[in-house]
Each structure stands twice: as structure tokens, then as C-alpha cells.
Amino acid sequence: MATRLRKGSHVEWETSQGKTRGKVERKLTSDTTIKGHHVAASPESPQYLVVSDKTGAKAAHRADALKRVDGSS
């Protein structure tokens, strides 16, 4: 992703139900577990913890899976 993501960036991503929008909560640079799922993140291959605007659910995504939405910080 050409645009740098940071905490508060408003983004959208694809789900099985269609596009979802939310905000970046933080950048993940080490392995972690979210909702019972292992997230393989590292400084060389970071992922971003995002929170859905609609449901408040948290998920981790690679930067290339996220599209910044206009009006983001």
C-alpha cells in the first residue's frame, strides 16, 4: 500500500459479506492471537489491527488488503 497507515486511519477491506469499513487501532509487528486466530506479524511483514465501524469486531489484515478511505488521518 502506497499510503502509510497509522492509528486512526479509516480503511475498508473485503469480507465474505462485502466491503467493510473501520479504523486502524494499531500496527502489529510480532506474533499475536486475535479471537483465537494466530496472526503471524513481524517488523518485516507487519499487519494492522482494525476495528469494524459497524460491529466493533477486531481483525488483523496485511496492508495490501486495506484501502484507505478519504478523510482519514
UniProtKB/TrEMBL annotation:
Annotated region described as Disordered, given as residue ranges: 1-27
Residue span(s) of domain Hypervirulence associated protein TUDOR = 8-66
Q: Which Gene3D superfamilies match?
A: 2.30.30.1060
Q: Which Pfam families match?
A: Hva1_TUDOR
Domain of life, source organism = Bacteria
Could you tell me what this protein is called?
A: DUF2945 domain-containing protein
